[in-house]
Specification:
mainly alpha, 5 helices
């Protein structure tokens, strides 16, 4: 009986690490994309937002930082909170500033997924 409990805990720990690694890699890629000029769509989108290109770089840093914090066990909550705020803001900007609410579904779904992951970790 004790062996089953240990096996379950190690599987849970492995799944947690794998999910946090996937979050870190995903948001590192999203953030890094904001720094490349080959992603011309980001330049255009941030011009439409109207805050200037510094906001594109700021968003890239926040996404990379949030992903890195989500990978470290004792900073997971801070990293997930940062990423949830970023995805929520992105969904709101798509809907309210750019007037393209349908494009806000993807960042909104990412935000909801991150919240669900965080809630699952707490239990």
């Amino acid at each position: 009986m004790f062996e089953q409990a240990v096996a379950h805990d190690s599987r849970t720990t492995l799944v947690d690490w794998l999910l946090r690694a996937a979050i870190a890699v995903t948001f590192a890629a999203f953030g890094a994309e904001k720094f490349t000029d080959s992603g011309h769509q980001w330049v255009k989108i941030y011009q439409q937002i109207g805050f200037g290109q510094w906001f594109r770089y700021f968003t890239g840093v926040v996404e990379i930082l949030g992903g890195a914090l989500a990978l470290i066990p004792w900073t997971v909550t801070a990293g997930l909170a940062l990423l949830v705020c970023t995805m929520g803001s992105a969904a709101l900007i798509w809907a309210l500033v750019l007037g393209q609410a349908a494009n806000g579904i993807i960042p909104g779904a990412f935000g909801v997924g991150l919240v669900l992951f965080w809630l699952n970790r707490r239990s």
